[in-house]
Specification:
Rossmann fold, 12 strands
Length: about 350
Amino acid sequence: MRDLSAELHRRGEDVTVLAGGGGVLFAALEEEGVPCHKLENLVHPIQPVRDLEAFKEIKAVLKELNPDLVTTHSNKAGLLGRLAAKSLKIPVIHTSHGFLFSGRESSAAGLFYRLMEKFAAGAADKVITVADSEYRLAERLKILAPSKMAVVHNGLPDLDPLLLADPEITPPQLIMVARFAAPKDHQTLLKALGRLTDLQWTLTLVGDGAGRGSAEELTAELGIKKRISFTGVREDVSRLLAESQVFVLSSGREGFPLSILEAMRVGLPAVAADVGGVSEAVRDGESGFLFPPGDVDRLAENLRRLLGDPLLRKRMGRAGRESFLKNFTLDQMVDKTITVYKSVAKPK
């Protein structure tokens, strides 16, 4: 959101960001010269009365701005924003960063989210999915017609060459960047590493959340506590990645994770669960290894191969870096996004 808005602004587009909370997003955008409007009633928890007020607030701001196009991101803001734009007859595009029903299609929660997405789909002129897998899933479940969807993979600006990693360094340091929540499944990673105590390695876990305490307890039970560093939320993730040799993502559910692209950008090999659009970024056996979600044995096997082979880490890291430059840069993402925007926007 930050990178896309800032780059559109740099290209001469008139961009205004509406969001709840404010904080670091607004600070970063204001530094880029992008106008921001804080929505006082847009909060994360579901609060029907306040959500109705947020809808009215969004509608009032859009009526004043009278934009050529509204684009929405995230779930609640995406629904309220689409409905507000539709009520004003303003073209609207929603970007789905991962459907909530993805990975749990047959559960009660998954069925509820499918109904909600079908309802919201009617309010959007087009929906951008960030992975081919999400596109195919929405088509298969008849959530959206193919004519109402477009795929635009996430992209990132490149880094200073000084922030490129050296995967050959031994003993290697592993890193995972993810909030501590059930979908990220830190337990599978920790259990796999508990089987690799005969090798030299350390692990940096970047992020925070309700599941951090149980993860810390598990490291003690597995006898690997001294090898693990819990950093909490950090603003220097690129530097931490550059200091590492292997990136790991053990998630049980993902859309198209930016953390994978951040790792590829610095030249790290990635070992990741084969969920969502991960396989569209990580080429198994070429730029890293994929394993079935929750499969401790396969994850441990893949990690053992990389931990014991500095040249393999270097080769895979270089392949990941080349794939990033070829397919996942910010310019590519913005070019494709603008094409979709122009197909829907109706300039006055």
